[in-house]
Amino acid sequence: MSSRWYFNWYDMKYASWDAIHITNPTAVQTTVVITIGSEIKTFVLAPSESEYVTLPGFISGPVIIYTEGDQPIMVTQRILGLRSFEETVGIQWT
Q1: Is the peptide bond before 62 cis (omega within 30 degrees of 0)?
Q2: CA 78, CA 16: separation in Å to the nearest integer?
Q3: Can you tell me the distance from the alpha carbon of 88 to that of 8, in angstroms, rounded to the nearest whole number?
Q4: How far apart are CA 29 and CA 24, in angstroms?
Q5: Which sequence spans correspond to the domains of the chain?
Q6: Which site in 4, 42, 63, 88 is 20 to 30 Å from 31, CA atoms measured?
Q7: Quick one: pLDDT at residue 83?
Q8: What is the model's pLDDT at position 5?
Q9: Is the CB of residue 58 less than 8 Å from the CB of residue 14?
Q10: Which CATH fold topology does 4-92 show?
């Protein structure tokens, strides 16, 4: 777990599906900020809650995710491409 995550790219323009899956495994509510290229989304995750972030038709990078107050979260990127499914863990950064 980390409070800051990085992925190099997001593609829901050419991939069938691309979602950033964010989970708050803590007992504390946390505010999550996700930036994909020029798009910025902010939302609140309750304890033990998960959220999928998708932007249909959007392609850009990098993907930067962090929490206000440095609460640790778990983040993966799930991509459905040409006859394949990939799930990757991002790079934790400080």
Answers
A1: yes
A2: 11
A3: 11
A4: 8
A5: 4-92
A6: 88
A7: 79
A8: 94
A9: no
A10: Hypothetical Protein Tm1070; Chain: A (2.60.290)
